[in-house]
Write a structure and sequence with these properties.
30% strand; 4-stranded antiparallel β-sheet; single chain; 3-stranded mixed β-sheet; alpha+beta
């Protein structure tokens, strides 16, 4: 009977999505060309990797990835968080097993959400070389008519 109480309490304190999906996810990052530096902000520890690469992020994190490579324009991608089908099912499972406490746990940890886009794929654009302004040419003075014509 005592072990039943412990199990029941554990179910109530843990959200269904938190239990079935976890509070972290893998995010794949790639680019064309490869070898681009991807600076990931929004994690507990700011991370930089060279594409192709992958990171592990909390589902609740607000993530921005900035891509930079010499000779190319830098690009920034803001990831959004969306409730996925399996996350919604886990979140709804709280009605049966976890109650309001489980829903609160899932909402706080973001366990019902996924980051989009995933994978993150960018195509780098070549940098536009800085145009060097040309000095205007001085107009030539008009030619004098030749004598004897």
């Amino acid at each position: 009977m005592r072990s039943f109480g412990i199990v029941a309490l554990s179910v109530m304190l843990g959200g269904c999505a938190s239990v079935t999906r976890g509070t972290t996810e893998n995010i794949s990052i790639s680019s064309t060309p490869s070898g681009v530096e991807a600076a990931v902000s929004g994690l507990e520890v700011p991370t930089t990797c060279t594409t192709p690469c992958a990171i592990v992020a909390k589902r609740s994190a607000d993530i921005t990835i900035t891509f930079e490579k010499e000779g190319y324009q830098s690009q920034t991608v803001q990831l959004t968080k969306e409730v996925s089908g399996t996350g919604a099912a886990g979140f709804a499972g709280n009605l049966l097993a976890g109650g309001l406490i489980g829903m609160g746990v899932d909402a706080a940890t973001g366990a019902a959400t996924d980051h989009k886009p995933n994978p993150v794929i960018v195509t780098m654009q070549p940098a536009v070389p800085h145009a060097v302004p040309r000095t205007p040419k001085k107009p030539r003075p008009p030619r004098a008519p030749e004598a004897g014509t």
